[in-house]
Amino acid sequence: MHRVLVVDDEPQIVRALVINLRARKYVVDAAHDGAGALRLAAERHPDVVILDLGLPDMDGVDVIRGIRGWTRIPILVLSARQTSDEKVEALDAGADDYVTKPFGMDELLARLRAAVRRAEPATGAGGEGVVVETDAFSVDLAAKKVHRDGRDVRLTPTEWHLLEALVRNSGRLVSQKQLLQEVWGPSYGTESNYLRVYMAQLRRKLEADPSRPRHFVTEPGMGYRFEV
Length: 228
What we know:
By secondary structure, this protein is α/β, with parallel strands linked by helices. The protein is 40% helix and 20% strand.
């Protein structure tokens, strides 16, 4: 049973989300402002957060940064802001997905399920015992850990899922559509800005020179390739 934190200052939206989530056996907490969201996140340790950006006391992007300061739990933005720059800002701050209002409940719940799946440990033997070493960092697929300079590198669930998809196809071109569908779900395929944001974040965290990446290579117009 997963715990969801809903953060929105519109009572009707909170009520609709609480009813639909509880009907699907989620445990739900609700906050109506940023301060309440940060407090409940620290107290209740939700498995996923659904977050509006237009909160009465602070911008939702600041809430994302506050949560990202101590946890990697998935954050699903639900907002009326629709411009590409606003979406990229939220993703760059650490959000895992972005749904614009008005929204379809079925789509939102599908994206919620996908976010929860990305955050859960992988099962099966497909990647057990596999450690990929580069000259700058190592990736332990079984333990879901990345080490650089003798220390763990903190990745969000989405960053890890993207890294894993590339590492498992080391040396091979992975198309944008394939990455989007594998990381975000089958309903995705054209949101290339998601990939740009998250590839930039992986490069900042793992490449010796992010402006001249050696390991996360862009094939313009086609996709990305991981090189050891």
